[in-house]
Specification:
mainly beta; Immunoglobulin-like; 2 domains; five-stranded antiparallel β-sheet; five-stranded mixed β-sheet; 22 strands; about 0% helix; signal; Molecular chaperone; Ig-like_fold
């Protein structure tokens, strides 16, 4: 499998290259000057035909965005990588989705509704299909004989670094009854200090759909109420992957001293109270 671009599930970081490069994220809905809501689109069943999302230019410049689908796979450390080789295990949603419009120009503060339409959904077999909708700003052509100040370019060699940011959101089609099981194992506490520590764990998924939700980490003392330590939202394990490792840095509240008791980690489904998985670690 060849990887031609590398994506993260966190916030973008500028990465200068001599040629145009776009980095994107599936875990946040805002990056650079573009705001996208919602941050994922899910078609449950073939009867749903159209979904809408809103994009907004929160910057100070008029910008044109190109909208397209890309194919990505989640690896075990949670990164999303774009694929240049597709396999039978990759059920692609892009074959059954149409996007309108595919190119948008937004002035500062301007918003636009984008529609995603499912087509030929009746021909889909049971299972989950996924692609990622990718928003990429289009660079305006520049005069090669003039620099940004309008002065003529000399014979000196100049290198200009362009920062171009993209953002992607998951587009998912689910056909048939969803079946999923998730477990948490290898839960370990590391680097324990007075005010912080690190939790490492592994999530194992089985079934015909992806998981998506929040991770809640709590300290459960021998006496008293549970203490919230951290909440991670938008945590996904995408098919066909079935394993994801995770590491979280935890700040200990000032009035809490970890003693006897245990750490409880709960993985909750987004939009419901369903518990995907739960695990505890005795202190």
């Amino acid at each position: 499998m060849n990887i031609i671009r590398n994506f993260t599930t966190g916030r973008f970081k500028p990465f200068p290259l001599f040629l145009l490069v776009a980095f994107t994220s599936s875990s946040i809905c805002a990056q650079g000057d573009l705001l996208v809501f919602p941050k994922r689109i899910v078609f449950d069943g073939s009867l749903q035909k159209v979904k809408t999302l809103h994009i907004s230019n929160i910057g100070t410049d008029t910008t044109t965005y190109r909208i397209s689908h890309i194919e990505m796979e989640m690896v075990s450390d949670g990164r999303l990588v774009e694929l240049d080789t597709l396999e039978a295990s990759h059920n692609l949603a892009s074959k059954f989705l149409r996007v309108f419009p595919r190119r948008v120009t937004l002035s500062p503060g301007e918003s636009q509704v984008v529609k995603i339409q499912m087509v030929n959904g009746n021909s889909l077999e049971k299972g989950e299909y996924r692609s990622h909708l990718y928003f990429r700003p289009v660079l305006e052509p520049q005069n090669p004989d003039r620099d940004q100040t309008g002065e003529p370019v000399t014979d000196q060699i100049k290198i200009k670094l362009n920062y171009v940011y993209g953002i992607s959101i998951a587009n998912i089609i689910r056909i048939g009854k969803p079946e999923i099981k998730v477990s948490i194992d290898s839960l370990e506490l590391k680097n324990l200090q007075k005010d912080r520590f690190t939790l490492t764990m592994a999530f194992r998924r089985s079934g015909n759909v992806s998981s998506y939700g929040s991770i809640v980490m709590e300290y459960i003392p021998l006496k008293g109420s549970p203490v919230l330590l951290n909440t991670i939202k938008g945590f996904a394990i995408y098919t066909p992957g079935n394993l994801r490792y995770a590491t979280f840095d935890i700040n200990i509240p000032e009035d809490i001293h970890l003693g006897q008791g245990h750490i409880r980690v709960t993985y909750l489904e987004d939009g419901s109270k369903r518990i995907y998985a739960q695990q505890t670690l005795n202190l």
